[in-house]
Design goal:
Structural class: alpha+beta
Distance between the termini: 33 Å
Number of domains: 2
Number of helices: 5
Helix content: 25-40%
Organism: Cephalotus follicularis
Strand order of the largest sheet: 2-6-7
Protein name: Exo_endo_phos domain-containing protein
Largest sheet: 3 strands, mixed
Radius of gyration: 23 Å
Strand content: 5-15%
Length: 163
């Protein structure tokens, strides 16, 4: 480890701010035989920190692997708390989509043509968020996913607990 730490100093990188699980590897055993370590890291140099000062690494539940997957978020400083709108392509395949678009697009909008289009897009965005904002995939699958996440979080936070 001392050689690895010396290498990190020489190449001038350090850990990104991280959230999620501290231990990123597990031998997937229970009780006294459980071993959890922080093997995986997200590293960045000074130029990265300067360009992406609000970036962070999120270490997720390991799922079927013995390592926790990591996602690096390239966040910019934001002044508002609103998330940007993202159109999801699979919405267009939903049976309700075209009717919703036709209904919104046929509404009367005042102003010049550009203002009318902007108004209609804004209304369409609001309707899309209302209709598709809370997707309801298989409730059983989602319940199992939540349960698995809770179990994995419990195991990673208290590795010595066999229960």
């Amino acid at each position: 480890m001392s050689e690895f730490n010396e290498c990190l100093k020489v190449i001038e990188v350090d850990d990104l701010r991280s959230v999620g699980h501290f231990f990123t590897w597990s031998n997937k055993r229970a009780g006294n035989f459980a071993v959890n370590k922080k093997l995986d890291r997200a590293l960045a140099n000074w130029h990265w920190h300067n360009s992406f000062s609000y970036s962070m690494a999120h270490f997720h539940n390991p799922g079927v692997s013995d390592h926790s997957p990591v996602t690096v978020f390239l966040m910019e400083r934001r002044t508002s708390g609103n998330r940007p709108f993202k159109f999801l392509n699979f919405w267009a395949k939903d049976a309700r989509f075209m009717g919703l678009v036709h209904r919104i697009w046929n509404q009367r909008a005042v102003g010049n043509p550009l203002e009318a289009v902007i108004c209609k897009l804004r209304n369409l965005k609001r309707e899309l968020k209302n209709v598709f904002g809370n997707p309801d995939p298989s409730p059983k699958r989602e319940a199992l996913r939540v349960e698995l996440g809770l179990i994995q979080s419990h195991l990673l936070s208290t590795p010595s607990d066999a229960g």
